[in-house]
Each structure stands twice: as structure tokens, then as C-alpha cells.
Design a protein that fits this description.
The complex is a heterodimer of chains A (145) and B (104).
Chain A: H1 2-23, H2 28-32, H3 36-42, E1 49-50, E2 54-57, E3 61-64, E4 68-74, E5 79-86, E6 93-99, E7 103-111, E8 117-125, E9 128-140
Parallel strand pairs in A: 1-9, 3-9
Antiparallel strand pairs in A: 2-4, 4-7, 5-6, 5-8, 8-9
Chain B: E1 4-12, E2 16-24, E3 45-52, E4 55-62, E5 71-77, E6 84-91, E7 96-102
Antiparallel strand pairs in B: 1-2, 2-5, 3-4, 3-6, 6-7
The chains are: A alpha+beta (145), B mainly beta (104).
């Protein structure tokens, strides 16, 4: 009895675990990149144009690099993704948000920054890429401990 | 510190729904050392999903650079009181959590 139950349970777990794994795509190559350029290459982004329609709000000076608030909103029509790069972190790519029908291209999050650096945000709209930057000065880095 | 419960608030703004969600998660970078000098292994949320009434509206991939106990704000088009918002996450060790709330 127990053996049958265990076999059924295993089959069930296998059945639901597979689609979950398929759903949970995570771009390991891009997130493991050690320079912003390599991260962008792994994301398939070749060139991006500067824009004033992408708003990045971050503190000019952050005392604690462990919690740096960043607010991003895109005024570019048809924005489908926002990408956050912390240029001098050991692994610069911090996040990629994909907006589908029903979500506005807006996000607010807290990140860790190793040292004073640019926060580079990219927006994807109609197959093109745009970027905006904001420098954040860090007093105490937030990556080690 | 282990991963734990989530908190979420969804409220109507002018023409959009404001969603604020808090996750309990250590977001270990794999670079930090504990009191004994041992490196604390990499442990961080990799995927986030936001659903409205069962439909996915936002998918995110994040790195260990997101701060401990992540807080995110998102905005959804329009919306009405009672809309069901669900946010879930999955981390690099296979742990996951989800929370559902109705728009207030």
C-alpha cells in the first residue's frame, strides 16, 4: 500500500515539477556575466539609444549600499521590459522585468550596491532598446558583510 | 535566516492599481561570511510572477543583488475593487512562496 502511494506521489510530484521548471526561466548566462557589456550581450541587446522618457529615481548618495531604493517608470510607448544593471557590482545584471498586457512599465525595488556606480536601466519597446543612467554614491558597500 | 511569509497590499490609484509586496528572504550573495568565517552559500529569489484574476501580467528574473527581504512596487492598468492579485516567487534552492489579496 505504502509503496503504491509513494510511487503515485512521486509520479505526481514529477508531473507538476516539470512544468514549474519550464516556467521558471532564469537567464543564467546573463546573470553570471561580470561586466555590463557581457550581460547585455547575453540578453541579446546590441545597441541602446539614450532617452529622456525613461525615468530612474535613485538617491544621489546612499549611506548603506545594502539597501538602495530605485524607482523606474517608462514613458516609451509599448515598453515590454525593463532591465536593471548595477555597473560596478561583481555581477552587474540585477533584474529583468517583463510586462505583459495589464501591467504598467513601472517598478520600485531595493538593491545592493558594492560601490559608487551608475545604475543603468534599459527599456525594451518594439524590438528596440533605450537606456537611462543615474549615479549613486555609496558610503558603505552592501555585497560582502 | 530562512525564507518566510509574504505581505501584500493592493490599492486603487488614479487609473491604475498599486501593488506593494514584501517577501521574507535572506537574499544571500554567496560572498558574505558568517561569524565563524564560513562563506554563506548563495541563496536568492530568481523568479517573480504577478497575476491578476489568474492571468500573468508580469514576469521578472532577479539576481542576488536585490536587497534582503525584498520589497517591490508594481502598477497595473485600471483595476477594480475585488480584483485578485497573486504574487509568487521561486528561489535558486527550489523554495517558493505565494500570496493572494483582493484589491481594496
Amino acid at each position: 500500500m505504502n509503496r503504491i502511494r509513494r510511487a503515485l506521489l512521486a509520479a505526481f510530484v514529477f508531473a507538476i515539477a516539470r512544468p514549474l521548471a519550464a516556467l521558471a526561466a532564469w537567464n543564467k548566462e546573463a546573470f553570471s556575466a561580470k561586466t555590463p557589456g557581457d550581460a547585455l550581450k547575453s540578453l541579446g541587446i546590441r545597441d541602446a539609444a539614450p532617452t529622456k522618457d525613461l525615468h530612474v529615481e535613485a538617491p544621489e548618495i546612499a549611506e548603506n549600499g545594502a539597501v538602495v531604493p530605485i524607482e523606474i517608470s517608462s514613458g516609451i510607448p509599448g515598453t515590454t521590459a525593463l532591465i536593471v544593471l548595477l555597473e560596478k557590482n561583481p555581477f552587474p545584471l540585477a533584474a529583468r522585468f517583463e510586462f505583459k498586457e495589464g501591467a504598467l512599465p513601472f517598478v520600485k525595488l531595493n538593491v545592493k550596491m558594492a560601490e559608487t556606480a551608475d545604475v543603468r536601466v534599459l527599456a525594451e519597446a518594439g524590438g528596440k532598446h533605450y537606456f537611462a543612467k543615474q549615479e549613486v554614491k555609496i558610503t558603505i558597500g552592501g555585497c560582502g558583510g | 535566516m530562512a525564507a518566510g511569509p509574504m505581505k501584500m497590499r493592493a490599492s486603487l490609484g488614479k487609473g491604475f492599481t498599486d501593488v506593494r509586496v514584501l517577501m521574507t528572504h535572506p537574499m544571500e550573495t554567496g560572498l558574505r561570511k558568517d561569524a565563524d568565517g564560513k562563506v554563506v552559500p548563495l541563496h536568492f529569489i530568481q523568479n517573480l510572477t504577478v497575476k491578476v484574476n489568474g492571468k500573468t501580467v508580469l514576469d521578472a528574473q532577479i539576481s542576488q543583488a536585490v536587497s534582503r527581504n525584498p520589497v517591490f512596487s508594481f502598477r497595473l492598468k485600471g483595476g477594480a475593487t475585488g480584483d485578485k492579485i497573486e504574487v509568487s516567487w521561486l528561489d535558486n534552492q527550489g523554495e517558493s512562496a505565494a500570496i493572494e489579496t483582493a484589491v481594496a
